[in-house]
Amino acid sequence: MGAQADIVYDVDYCVIGSGCSGLVSAARAAELGLKVVVLEAYPTPGGSFFGTEAHYYLNGRAIEGSGIKAFSEKDALKQHLGFNNYSCDGRVTSAFMQKHGQAIDWMLDQGVEVDCILTGEGGIGENGGVTGIMFKGKARGAFKYIKDAADKNGVEILCKTRAKQLIKEDGVVKGVIAVQNWDEDEAEQKTVQVNAKATLIATGGFAHNDEMVKKYIKADADGMRHITIMNGIQQGDGINMAWDAGAAEMGSRFVNGATGTVVGHRADDPVDRASVQPFLWVNRHAKRFCDEQPPEQHFEFAMTVEQPHAEYFTILDTKLAKKMMVEPTIRWNKLLPRHNNPEPELLKMLDECAGDGSVFKADTIEELAEKCGLDPVQLKETWESYNKACADKFDPVFFKDEEALVAIDEPPFYAILVHAFLFCTLGGIKINEFTQALDSEGKVIPGLYASGNDAGGFYGNHYNYYDSGSCSAFAFFTGWEAANVVAKALKG
Ligand SMILES: Cc1cc2nc3c(=O)[nH]c(=O)nc-3n(C[C@H](O)[C@H](O)[C@H](O)COP(=O)(O)OP(=O)(O)OC[C@H]3O[C@@H](n4cnc5c(N)ncnc54)[C@H](O)[C@@H]3O)c2cc1C
Prior knowledge:
Blueprint: E1 7-16, H1 20-31, E2 36-39, E3 55-56, H2 73-83, H3 90-109, E4 114-118, E5 132-135, H4 138-152, E6 156-158, E7 161-169, E8 172-180, E9 190-201, H5 210-217, E10 225-226, H6 237-244, E11 249-250, E12 255-261, H7 270-275, E13 280-282, H8 301-305, E14 311-317, H9 318-326, H10 346-353, E15 359-362, H11 365-372, H12 376-392, E16 413-425, E17 428-430, E18 436-438, E19 444-450, E20 455-456, H13 470-491
Parallel strand pairs: 1-2, 1-9, 2-6, 9-19, 10-16, 17-20
Antiparallel strand pairs: 3-5, 4-5, 7-8, 8-9, 11-17, 12-16, 13-14, 14-16, 15-16, 18-19
Helix pairs in contact: 1-4, 1-13, 2-3, 3-13, 11-12
The chain binds flavin-adenine dinucleotide.
């Protein structure tokens, strides 16, 4: 294979992917004296650096002396293990809890600036809780400093270069084969062979690979939507390469999802905000499936993805829309900073958007059902029993809170279609606490490391507010730690 490659590199450390974990890892490894090459499939580096807002941060120097009472590592570890049914990897989790602050502090050392510390992210309130850090300019702002650090220490980043296959000889991973200009005509393509003493898989999971999403997250989730604005190609390449090289699977069932999304509406526009309020929610069978008040700590992904086609409708009437225009909302907005302000433009927007495929409007419930493609008889039955529960101030099925039991009785009626929404996937390759890839016997595959969304072990459940910001912090930590471990192994 070596003789056939158009370009050959001989390096200490090959990093596949230049997102949150890959770029941090490359910059850290080069600082520690390793010769590093990074392969990036996208035309520009950065991956999901360009979307990330806030990062889990319990124990770094920006907290110390700030007067903010954060969770101890002990409390955070117990909360995380408990929420995840103890089905995540305890050693990986413990390593993250104890060392992620050091990884983020190293980023601050590179010039990344603190915007603020977020408190009570886990909803624990005044007595401490999960705390988060935001960087000035968000993660997009941080990217510049980490990229500068990588450049300063001689990291070579090959963009438009998509890794295809690991080189494994005698049970040891010795580098990777990639294709440069992989998305162009064959004549423009070049084979790249990177011979490396250590290889890190940091390709960001498989959120954009519909087949894998269907297979690993949920087979019939046709209604699921994912974000399309990211700076990368998250197709599960790294996970598949590692599995092909004998790495075991872990955690590929779990995702960072959020409250649902309304197609054609940006997060927190008035329609999107109405869609998450505890009005009447029905699935494609025109049946209620919860109390419409899932605690915000759990987002709604896990619940929504279990509904037929991973979607549901939020139904409201003119009275509820008018109320939301002047009163604080029961459920808060999605993006930071949080608020529960009224939405004075709601009714106007609902009327303007009616018929856009996401918002439906009708004078009767039966007509609304027809427009939504729901069974009119079943929707009428659901609606009548819901309104009875509101009149009785008692919900016999889901015990919804009394103050949220408001009848849907003033036409016109509106329905908003909500889809389960996927940011990124959360696992795939089984690793140990040193980010080394493991085979199905739990043995280390020499030369192979995995980080960020490609690495399984930290999540044993879908993402939730208790772990808010841990996705990116886990990527920063595992990237940074992989560099430390490789440098120690190679340089002592
Ligand atoms: C919109 C959005 C908002 C988010 N907000 C937050 C937040 O506020 N807090 C939080 O904690 N988390 C957040 N996340 C999640 C967080 O961004 C990810 O967990 C994190 O970026 C994962 O880092 P990574 O290095 O594993 O992957 P990425 O940052 O996605 O980087 C992977 C890189 O690998 C490249 N690549 C893929 N395949 C190949 C290949 N075959 N060869 C070479 N390169 C390849 C990709 O192009 C990409 O550049 C958010 C995610 C999104 C999408």
